[in-house]
Structure formats: structure tokens, C-alpha cells
Amino acid sequence: MTDQISPSELTVQRVRHPVKLRLLQVLRTRQLSPNQLLVTLGGEPLSDFVTASFDNHVKLMWGPDGLSAPELPPLGPDGPQWAPGAARPLMRDYTPRRFDAQALELDIEFALHGDGPAANWARQARPGQTLAVGGPKGSFVVPMGFDWHLLVGDDSALPAIARRLEELPEGKRVTVVLALHEADRRALSTRADLNLVWVDEPAQLPATVQALQLPPGIGHAWAGGEASAIADVRRVLVGHHGLPKERVRASAYWKRGQADHHESLEG
Fold first, then answer.
1. pTM greater than 0.90 (yes/no)
2. pLDDT of 93-152, one tens digit each?
3. What span, in angstroms and rounded, lies between the C-alpha atoms of 243 and 107?
4. Tens digit of pLDDT for each residue in 207-238?
């Protein structure tokens, strides 16, 4: 239990990273399930890449056609310096699924639903193509020392959840509630003591989380996915389960009917 751990050791920390824009090359692709594709990117620009936590994201960028790499602007003290009137690239936020600093490889998992620029690009991605990647500009580092961890999300949060499961140590208690089509469900690797609950739709997440019997001790809950569902999950965790707000981290990775949505849910 955490009675031997100081409060500072259970404080989520935000770590800032220098912002950098990179043009990377597609090395290979791998179909993970009918609607999930892994793209491995590489190149010397990754030599100073930093991803300090499962809870961060990079911006993938495309030209106006949604396929070609955009022309990258210079960086100023406040980030990219876009020329007045210049067309901005198409941008989407994605979690770094895996980074190998020795091989200079970065894995990104794509959900192939819908007709957005990311899914459309991923479907046609081939070795040798280029992709522009910005960031991450920061990471939220959740300590390992909590007695238990709860991870909740849909397919947009699957890369972050899978990465976190691989990071958790042996014997740590973790419950995962995932909304995923049955055809896309796959084994998730972890050394932790895992309780995995599948549901079919993001709308089922709040009620499923409310029905959970949370373990004793001090825990941390993380949730990511569709905005309304994750907002309700957060309300359940704080209002029904009584978790302190500082031990709940919730992010809207997408919003139904709105493109390119990403926000932290607080309050």
C-alpha cells in the first residue's frame, strides 16, 4: 500500500519538451486488426525525439491534398511561424505508441474508420513515403506508485492504454475498460495484474465504469476518447466513486460531428 510513499511521489507531473517539426520516412506498415494499422516511421530527425509518458501526443501533418508532406515553417519562441495568409497543413493528434531511440523508429497506430485525413493517408501508406510530425511539446507523467490504476477509453485511446500497460510493473493492479468493435479486440501485453473489460460503444463507458468495484488503496484513473462519453466517465469517477479530481486525468481525443478535436476535461 502507499502509506510508505510521500504525496510528492504520487503527483502527476507535466514535463515540457522543446518543440520540433520533423519530416520522417515510412519504414513499414502492419495490419493489427481489420480497422487498426501500425505505421513505423524513421529517420535521423528522431535522434533528439522525446516522449516521456503514454499521456502525450504528436501532431501529424499533411499538405492540402491530405497525402503529401507540407512545407514546414521555421520555429520561433512560440512555435511554428506560419507566413501570413499561408495555407495551414491538415493536422491530427496521435499518441506515440512506441519509440526506439537506438533504431530511431517511431510507431503510430491508426484507426481506419471514417474518411478523415489520417485514416485516408494510413490506408495508402507505403515504405519510402514521408510524413511531417510535430512535438510532443509536453508529457503528463503519471507515477507508477499508486496502489492501482484505471484506464478507460475507445479505439482512439487504445495506443496510449496499450503503451501504459507495457510500462506498468509486475504485480501492479490495473483495470482497463475499452470500447472497441469485437473484430478489433486483441491481446494486450502487460506484466501487471490486469482486469480487462470490453464494451461495444463509447456511450457504454460511463455506466460500465460506474458498475466497477474499485480496489482499496490510493489509485489513479485515466480516460481518453469521445468527448461526451469521457466527460461522463469523469463525472462518474469523481461524483459516484469519490475520487479526488487530482487523481483523475480525462481527455477528449475526438468529438462526434467535429473534426480535429482534442481537449483536457477538467472542472
1. yes
2. 999 999 999 999 999 999 998 788 999 999 999 999 999 999 999 999 999 999 999 999
3. 33
4. 999 999 999 999 999 999 999 999 999 999 99
- Yes or no: say if 221 and 243 are a contact pair by the CB < 8 Å rule: yes
Q: Please enumerate in sequence order all residues whose Cβ is within 8 A of that of 116, keeping only pairs 6 or more positions apart, or say none.
A: 92, 259
Closest Cα partner for 131 from 155, 112, 107, 115?
107
Name the residue with cell 503527483.
11
Beta bridge partners of 109: 38
**Strands, E, within 124-213: which ranges?**
130-134, 138-141, 148-153, 173-179, 193-199
Rounded to 10 degrees, the C-alpha dihedral 11/137/224/243 comes to 20
Q: Could you tell me which of 250, 247, 177 has the C-alpha nearest to residue 217?
A: 247
Alpha carbon distance 188, 3 (integer Å): 30
Bridge partners, 61 (sequence order): 91, 132
Residue closest to 152 by CA, chosen among 108, 214, 107 = 214
